Amino acid sequence: MSDGATPFPVTRSEQEWRDELSPLEYHVLREAGTEAPWSGEYVATKTQGTYSCRACGEALFRSDAKFDSHCGWPSFFTPLAGDRVIEVVDTSHGMRRIEVRCSSCGSHLGHVFEGEGYDTPTDLRYCINSVCLTLDPE
């Protein structure tokens, strides 16, 4: 799922991705789908640790950047480091959004929104599908 210009360090054939991921993981991570709101395992978790890309294992977010946005998906106000994710303009579904992808394998993670008024240090909400993440507790 590269944007055509970005070579990703982790590459697999689509069949290899299908073999490694569950059908829902494949749909969300590789086909830019989404899980149903409030259905993900990390929506309400308060466990301290690091959230990594479920497809390739790249560390993406820390639990200390996670906040309760009450939107139905885990929300973070910043990635672990700016180079851990790629932001791409997404004009699907008749709207303009910013898609968030893993910079290591190019997998879809969710979207980032700004200016929503949350009391966070960045005024950003990285709205990430739980199925795209694996939590490594501290």
Summarize the structure.
This protein has 138 residues and is mainly β. The chain is built from two helices and nine strands; from the N terminus they run H-H-E-E-E-E-E-E-E-E-E. It has helices at 14-20, 23-31, and strands spanning 49-53, 59-62, 66-67, 75-76, 85-90, 97-102, 108-114, 124-128, 133-137.
Notes on the structure:
- This protein has a single domain, classed as Peptide methionine sulfoxide reductase (Metal Binding Protein, Guanine Nucleotide Exchange Factor, Chain A).
- 12% of the residues lie in helices and 30% in strands.
- The longest helix has 9 residues.
- With 138 residues, the chain is mainly β.
